[in-house]
Amino acid sequence: MGARHTRSAIVARGLDVASMEGLGGLTIGRLAHDLAISKSGLLGHFGSKQSLQLAVLDAAADVFRHEVWDRVADQPAGLPRLRATCEAWVSYLERRVFPGGCFFTAVTSEFDDRHGPVRDGVARLARRWNRSLRADAERAAADLPAGTDPDQLVYELSSLMLGLNYALQMWDDECAPERTRRAVHRLLGPPAAT
Amino acid sequence: MGARHTRSAIVARGLDVASMEGLGGLTIGRLAHDLAISKSGLLGHFGSKQSLQLAVLDAAADVFRHEVWDRVADQPAGLPRLRATCEAWVSYLERRVFPGGCFFTAVTSEFDDRHGPVRDGVARLARRWNRSLRADAERAAADLPAGTDPDQLVYELSSLMLGLNYALQMWDDECAPERTRRAVHRLLGPPAAT
DNA sequence: ATAACGTCCGAACGGTCGGTCTCTATCCGG
DNA sequence: CCGGATAGAGACCGACCGTTCGGACGTTAT
């Protein structure tokens, strides 16, 4: 079996572990044990734990991109895509794509007051997604009640996603996705009938 | 120096450390070093790390209660107290009472998918505060537009507080408190003029 | 056949973890 | 003045951390 396969298996497993235990809780020894390989064999693929963390972070970003952004890329920019993005986001959380809840919420609260490449990577991703959201919100403002502030809109929508993740992770609250949708509809109007 | 004093000093220092590093990042050795006492001297007051964690959690709950709930206890139940609670909550986050952001947000995302006394303690506190919020929301529903769902209201308000903590902690976003207030006012109406 | 390479292992490194042990200094009631 | 309780020191334990290193394999190219 090639190194590519081994490496991606490590990252895949690391993704699951890190979404539950955080990127810090991801330990070389445990990961090696789970995959029935040696610690040194594992670390050989990355060089250091930090490189492993960054690789896992990248993989998580790929998953999130695939689960949310790729699904709304064909929507018209502005309000329609903003609505679709929110729905995809809710669905991503509802389906519990990561067993430990939203990967980035967990990692953010772990690294938000640290320095270094991991925190920088998380911030870069968050900033990028925030910009995308904000761009659609700006266009959408024209289709929403006068005086709608795009930044305020993005802020409230993001907060709702944080709340949904919390409700699902802490309480297994089955009503939370529906509640989130209702709140989104109140901000953006009812979902477009397809 | 009495044991009481030493113990409370340990908890106080642990509060600061844990709000930044999480309850898991709170290590006996480091805490003892910070306070210039021995590990055994420290551990003698608690018996185990878990007891220390629970003591710190209790202390954090006292702080939060003092910073939020005690300040609104004299308000009339229902909408006025709900408004006051939200404002106190925003202020608590804005003033960065804990250097690492909201203690309970951090601890929740750390323990939400574990078992044990610490997670139970966090859940107990969250449930209690949620109930208080919900009770006022129920009363407030009469003073709000018809069809207002108290659970939905509590859900959205809580999400906004999560969002505020995120914005402050991750981005040092100075506008976030004001944005949160604006969103709260949209849900609860403008703040009562005093 | 042989040399080189990629892949992975097993052992070991220094360090930190939570926790236990023994010992001493101090205080307080009789 | 004494004797027990107690706070705390400090050495130490086994487990685990991330990391390094030499070498054992199988494949591939020469």
TrEMBL record, chains A, B:
Gene3D superfamilies: Homeodomain-like (1.10.10.60), Tetracycline Repressor, domain 2 (1.10.357.10). Residues 4-64 form the HTH tetR-type domain. InterPro entries: Homeodomain-like_sf, HTH_TetR, Tet_transcr_reg_TetR-rel_C_sf, TetR_C. GO terms for molecular function: DNA binding. Residues 27-46 bind DNA. PROSITE patterns: HTH_TETR_2. Pfam families: TetR_C_13. Keywords: DNA-binding, Transcription, Transcription regulation. It comes from the Bacteria. This is TetR family transcriptional regulator. It comes from Haloactinopolyspora alba.
